[in-house]
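Exercise 7.
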Amino acid sequence: MDYILNIETATKNCSVALAKEGKTILCKEIAEEGYSHAERLHVFIEEIIQEAGITFKDLVAVAVSQGPGSYTGLRIGVSAAKGLCFALGIPLIAIDTLKTLASQVKVSNGLIIPMIDARRMEVYSAVFTPNFENRRATLAEIITENSFEDFQEILYFVGDCSEKCKTVLTKETFVFLDEIKFPSAKEMSLLSFEKYKISDTVDVAYFEPYYLKDFMITTSKK
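Solution. The predicted structure, written as tokens, is:
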């Protein structure tokens, strides 16, 4: 059996899922105002392995959220994933955080806009079709009333910044799915299995999360 451990820590949601043949069989997660990833992540991993009745040696790969997202959260998740891969001699799979978030939306028309809160009116966003194909690359952007005006389709927005974005994104074709706030490891299961089948893995030693750090650099006014 192809068991893959999926780790998602890019946002406030500390999430771990065990998948078999691309289907989630166990998931543990918690989203808190204060990040508890350092305390919770390894506990969740141990509990899932024990509850599944398998051992770490049964894992064929570990998948981790690659970002964008919280610098600290990503570092914790990637460090844990690398440690497991090194110890077990198995491959590491990197999954786009925004695609994981978008994968929770089930629609047949329009476009899906997953957004992760950065600061103030800034977000990390991407654009996906209902089949989760990239329509526009990931960007770090400031949301204004003119954002996404080039898209004529119905746009479905998900993520943890809906409340602030609703104040400026007011077109009738903009639909906010408020119940979907954070990416979850259980949505990574099929994505990671598809990558595993074609050996789409990353170098365990050199892989770094996708921080979009340039977005945070500002120029002094002095």
